[in-house]
Amino acid sequence: MKYVSADEAVKLINSGDHVYIQGSTSVPETLVDALTRRGHELRGVTLYSGFSVARREAPYCRPEFKDSFLVDTCFVSNNVRRWIADGYGATTPKFLGEVPSLFRDGTWPVDAVLLNCSLPDENGYVSYGVSADLAFSATECARKIIAQINPCMPFSYGDPVIHVSKIDAAVLVEDPLVEVPTPEPNANEIAIGRAIAERIPDGATLQIGVGGIPNAVIAALSDHKHLGLHTEAMTDGVLPLIQKGVIDNSLKKIEPGKSVACLALGSRHLYDLMDHNKEMIFRDVAWTNDPFIIGQNPRVMAINSCLEIDLTGQVCADSIGTRIFSGIGGQHDFVYGSSRSEGGLSFMAMTSTTNKGMGKIKPVLTPGAGVVTTRFQTNWVVTEHGAVNLRGKSLPERARLMISIANPADREELERAAFERFGYSFSRLAGI
């Protein structure tokens, strides 16, 4: 493979092009910097992105480039969050598992992709490593493929593999991946983790997210047996269960014996374990997040978090009022997928208050807040004050259950709001 400089590689991009930039912890920073250096000569270059954890704000997110680079993301990540909040960039709402269809049907044309890839194997294939998610479909549809070839990127198996002969411009770069520390759960998160873990049976298939609560769940599962993993994000948190044999994937129907994800984010230890590891498979997010594929596994346990929930079970997970903070991600995909699974359950987990002491269970969602999981789909809701199952419950029954796990200081106000909304049908539940 012939290597060129980053500045030479990005000359393949022209004004008006649509460019996908790989995400997860593998943003191709060297190529992004080179493209930004062309900002004063380019106009109207649309930049697509999805979920990513970058080490810094994107360099193209500066006012002098507002007409050069048009940011359009389906997930508001840390590198573009301020740019979008300031009104320069845009976000397109879409279930993460359905984003590849935007590329494949031409709704989002792809003139070029910027990738961060592993070194070639003996057969001339490189891997996208920690990010198959949207990179696979975007690359499949792209007219031009521009790649960093990076010895720091693990070689992962599954979909994110491409032969070097298909790469139009390659740049040799040693660029360490972003490392995401494993957060230690606090006392409230530990209580939530235990409440969820005690409802997870042996032989379950896990979808589990990132953060203190998921890590608390994982810690409480150490005595379980024959768990499987079919998830969106592979993290350090699951490694102890894999290494102890708690996760052995022996009872899964889809990719039995394999831990499945579409992206990874964690420490160097995780990336090293992924490298040429055929027991970890990374797939196109359109496949991993397909509810009809998810539902074929037995006892799917979908464990997700959120920002706030109203008394009827409407879940907001992507916005703070009108401000989009993150994205829908795969929450809906796995909530629906778990409902199609024999013995499947979904858990919406959160502490009952914010860090500032504001209640997260509300009479109605904050004005402008978006509904990510509808009240029709919400199953278990868990806080440090308990776990309630909303499945099959009427609106007044849901309100009573939600109040029982709310911050105690908020319960009186929630009771008043529920009575005003539901009247006698609510009050009779308390024997009034």
Strand content: 15-25%
Give the number of DSSP strands. Answer: 25
Q: Which shape, going by the Cα principal axes?
A: globular
Provide the low-confidence segments as ranges.
none
Largest sheet: 7 strands, parallel
Mean pLDDT: 94
Q: Please tally the helical runs, counting DSSP H or I stretches of 4 or more residues.
A: 15
| Structural class based on helices, strands and sheet pairing | alpha/beta
Distance between the termini: 77 Å
Strand order, biggest sheet? Answer: 4-3-2-1-5-7-10
Helix and strand arrangement:
Blueprint: H1 6-9, E1 18-21, H2 29-37, E2 45-49, E3 69-73, H3 81-85, E4 90-91, H4 99-104, E5 112-117, E6 125-127, H5 135-141, E7 144-149, E8 157-158, E9 161-163, E10 169-172, H6 187-197, E11 205-208, H7 212-219, E12 228-229, E13 233-234, H8 239-243, E14 259-261, E15 263-264, H9 268-274, E16 280-282, H10 285-288, H11 291-294, E17 300-305, E18 308-310, E19 315-316, E20 319-320, E21 323-324, H12 331-340, E22 345-349, E23 361-362, E24 380-383, E25 386-389, H13 395-404, H14 411-422, H15 424-427
Parallel strand pairs: 1-2, 1-5, 2-3, 3-4, 5-7, 7-10, 8-16, 11-12, 11-17, 13-15, 14-16, 17-22, 18-23, 22-24
Antiparallel strand pairs: 6-9, 18-19, 20-21, 24-25
Helix pairs in contact: 6-7, 13-14
